[in-house]
Amino acid sequence: MKKFTVQHLATAAVVGAAYAVLSIFGSVFGVTFGPVQCRFAEALCVLPFFFPETAGGLFVGCLITNLLSPYGLLDIVIGSLTTLLAAVLTARCKRKWLAPLPPVVCNGLLVGGMLAWEQVGFTDAFAATFALNAASVALGELLACYGLGSLLLWRLPKISFFKSRMSKA
Length: 169
Hints:
There is one protein chain. This protein has helices spanning 6-28, 54-66, 73-91, 101-120, 126-155, 160-163. It is an all-alpha fold. The chain has one domain (6-163). Helix 1 runs parallel beside helix 2, helix 2 runs antiparallel to helix 3 (73-91) and helix 3 (73-91) runs antiparallel to helix 4 (101-120). The longest helix has 30 residues, at 126-155. The chain is globular and about 55 Å long.
């Protein structure tokens, strides 16, 4: 991305708003927060592959969502920065099939670690609790990013409105 334009800002804002709305909608079903989570909005985390400017929007959308988190300030900071890191790594992916991988790995490790620390602190039970949380968070991410996100990766390049705006196809 050479120059950040008003169109880029608008795209990032729409993606951020969509992320927040989808996540808050998911909280109605109890799948947005906690060790067993599958945020529908995480499917949007593949968008930086085509639209690098959406990384900031995903961060802001996640930040807005995490303001409602039962894990408080820790989730607001760690969860939101994890989404930003995953989005930046996704933007740097060279192959389409790898684009959903950064959110799966980053959230599994970082959010899984945060949840384990919240549950047991750095006690002897941390390793087992971390493994369980990391696996369950990564599984939810896998479903959202490789399941729903892959649909976006496959369909968006076929829509002329989006194709003309993509950084790679």
